[in-house]
Q: What sequence folds into this?
């Protein structure tokens, strides 16, 4: 097991290298030179145009950011800063990028965690139900519902929710955004504060979760059906085990294998989705931060978030690999993938 | 083989002399949802082709002072540089005195603003603007009809790029195996680990002048992995077959064997990946446009119309109609993918 994990981690080193090179390359896509951009921003409302002062500032900034060195050296400097988690300062308010991100990270991580737990928590029983009741009316209705959910664009559902459920003109069941009431106070009891969070986050979480949940349920159903066809399941039935034990103990474990690897695909989808959901519902998380940064072309922030989310995805995939080995002992016995 | 209602279903075995394609098509036809979806995409294609005749601020055909004119056709001719507007250059088509005129069902272009609308109430769906207008008076239905062009072309072009890359790399990996396979498989894994949506959004935002072509290219360049995996697996399978060995024994070139003998038998499952890929491309483009990073502001796509509804919560028609079109289109492609997969699945065919 330890050997397998180590092997997976070693395999990630080239991937890591590729991602850093790609991030660096994307950061160079920005038109013009970042130093000029920076001066342009700071000089806003004051001196514009290329005065002597601006030229000197440019010179200094270029040296400070190593823009006067060859590309590969720039990359190495960038990599050194990356390892130190130093992403420079935001163009918008000159605060360290990492500080801005750390402020926003907890809420997005918490939402991701809840989303993954919710998605799997509902998808697994639902998938098992559909598979064991394959062909019945219940299964067909579930399939249709899941299919519709799977094809519904997140941003549309979010907009519909805001328009019809958070709107005094129709139904004002939920607040239009934020994560707590503006009038929330420290004096509120713990329960009241939790209730306030739940009230604010119900819709965003639903919108955030439903498509991964629908996707996982569909996969769970087919994985379970596949397992139920196996000989060992028939054997379990034949020796007189109750259906509950056969399904939840014998069949479930094997049907989970393909589901767990889906985590590797669900995580990047969630990271992309957070930009949309947090923007629609004005949730002050990483997604909303990146949206603002993208609108303002705040390159240091954009690049930091891009690199970090690629790294997070990588960690997610590693996690899926390890879990894969936990549920399927065959994997860790030095079987080469594919 | 007509199916009599209530008759026993005949197991779908290949009839003598029936080609593989025909057999798959026969299977596909049995799936009603798949057929409806195919019909819907066909309808979208017709709308896309005829958009200028369905929603336009000029009459299709009219007679002015005894002269017969075809303004919509003339628009194409001028667009192609074959003709010029001449005396019609400054004409306000809405105010012209016609002997008679045949107008398109929606007498607006997606860019035309209707200045007569003053209040929010005027912009609601009404007999004048069936699906309402946006905040500067552009007709929603005209936008939806013309947006069909973008929705279709984005799906097909982005997926075309992905197919080209995926088939090429997948075939190489599957046919040669060994080191080529290892390198390509690693590349597939690498691309799979990328947060695709975020990568596309970052690149589109970074390259300041975002265009529809850049978006299509980005979706294609990041979306080929599924196709490559399919093709690789299929080519691996087909390559071991005797007829390929026979082709090799006959001394055919490797290129000919791959493209003429191996690929045609490996392509069917790729269609499934392509259908899902198109659905995904449509979703990504509309999500980008929704966030405001997609097409330039002058271009009206379904996603950019939906984006207009952001910020104001009272314009429900701007939310419901364009979003419904995105949903239906994505669902149709997904259903086609599902139906194709079922039609290709040999286990269902006994």
A:
């Amino acid at each position: 097991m330890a050997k397998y994990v180590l092997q997976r981690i070693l395999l990630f080193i080239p991937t890591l290298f590729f991602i850093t090179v790609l991030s660096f390359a994307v950061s160079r896509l920005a038109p013009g030179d970042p130093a000029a951009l920076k001066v342009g921003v700071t000089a806003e409302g004051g001196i514009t145009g290329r005065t002597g002062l601006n030229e000197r500032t440019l010179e200094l900034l270029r040296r400070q950011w190593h823009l006067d060195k060859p590309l590969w050296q720039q990359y190495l400097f960038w990599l050194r800063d990356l390892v130190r988690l130093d992403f420079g300062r935001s163009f918008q308010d000159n605060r360290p990028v990492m500080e801005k991100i750390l402020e926003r990270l907890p809420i997005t991580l918490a939402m991701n965690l809840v989303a993954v737990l919710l998605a799997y928590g509902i998808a697994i029983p639902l998938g098992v139900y559909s598979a064991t009741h394959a062909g019945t009316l219940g299964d067909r209705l579930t399939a249709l519902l899941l299919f519709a959910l799977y094809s519904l664009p997140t941003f549309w559902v979010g907009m519909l929710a805001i328009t019809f459920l958070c709107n005094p003109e129709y139904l004002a069941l939920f607040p239009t955004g934020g994560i707590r009431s503006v009038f929330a106070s420290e004096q509120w009891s713990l329960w009241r504060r939790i209730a306030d969070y739940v009230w604010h986050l119900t819709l965003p979480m639903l919108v955030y979760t439903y498509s991964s949940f629908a996707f996982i349920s569909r996969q769970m159903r087919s994985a379970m059906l596949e397992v139920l066809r196996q000989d060992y399941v028939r054997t379990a039935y034949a020796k007189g085990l109750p259906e509950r034990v056969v399904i939840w103990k014998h069949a479930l474990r094997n049907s989970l294998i393909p589901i767990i690897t889906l985590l590797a695909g669900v995580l990047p989808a969630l990271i992309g989705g957070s930009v949309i959901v947090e923007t629609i519902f004005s949730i002050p998380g990483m997604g909303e931060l990146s949206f603002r940064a993208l609108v303002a072309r705040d390159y240091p922030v954009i690049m930091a978030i891009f690199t970090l989310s690629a790294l997070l995805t990588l960690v997610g995939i590693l996690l899926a690999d390890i879990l894969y080995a936990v549920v399927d002992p065959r994997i860790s016995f030095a079987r080469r993938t594919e | 083989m007509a199916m009599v209602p209530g008759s026993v279903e005949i197991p779908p075995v290949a009839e003598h002399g029936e080609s593989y394609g025909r057999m798959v098509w026969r299977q596909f036809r049995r799936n009603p949802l798949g057929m409806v979806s195919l019909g819907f995409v066909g309808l979208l294609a017709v709308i896309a082709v005829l958009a200028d005749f369905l929603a336009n601020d000029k009459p299709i055909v009219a007679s002015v002072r005894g002269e017969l004119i075809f303004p919509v056709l003339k628009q194409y001719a001028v667009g192609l540089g074959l003709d010029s507007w001449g005396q019609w250059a400054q004409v306000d088509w809405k105010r012209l005195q016609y002997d008679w005129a045949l107008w398109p069902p929606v007498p607006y272009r997606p860019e035309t603003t209707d200045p007569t609308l003053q209040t929010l109430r005027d912009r609601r769906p009404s007999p004048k603007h069936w699906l309402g207008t946006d905040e500067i008076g552009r007709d929603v239905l005209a936008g939806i009809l013309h947006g069909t062009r973008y929705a279709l072309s984005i799906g097909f072009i982005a997926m075309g790029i992905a197919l080209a890359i995926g088939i090429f790399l997948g075939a190489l990996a599957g046919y040669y195996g060994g080191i080529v396979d290892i390198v390509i498989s690693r590349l597939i894994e690498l691309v799979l680990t990328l947060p695709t949506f975020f990568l596309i959004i970052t690149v589109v935002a970074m390259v300041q002048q975002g265009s529809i072509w850049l978006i299509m290219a980005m979706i294609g360049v990041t979306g080929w992995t599924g196709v490559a995996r399919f093709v690789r697996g299929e080519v691996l399978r087909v390559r071991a077959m005797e007829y390929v060995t026979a082709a090799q024994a006959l001394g055919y070139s490797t290129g000919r064997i791959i493209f003429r003998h191996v690929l045609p038998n490996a392509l069917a499952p790729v269609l499934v990946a392509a259908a899902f890929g198109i659905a995904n491309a449509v979703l990504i483009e509309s999500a980008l446009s929704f966030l405001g990073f997609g097409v330039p502001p002058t271009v009206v796509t379904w996603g950019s119309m939906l984006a207009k509804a952001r910020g104001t919560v009272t314009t429900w028609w701007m939310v419901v109609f364009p979003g419904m079109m995105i949903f239906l289109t994505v669902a149709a492609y997904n259903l086609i993918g599902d139906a194709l997969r079922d039609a290709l699945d040999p286990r269902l065919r006994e």
Observations:
- The longest helix of chain B spans residues 140-176.
- Chain B touches chain A at residues 185-186, 189-190, 192-199, 201-203, 205-208, 279, 283, 286-287, 290-293, 306, 309-310, 313-314, 316, 319-320, 323-324, 326-327, 330-331, 334-335, 338 (CB under 8 Å).
- Confidence is low (pLDDT under 50) at residues 1-11 of chain B.
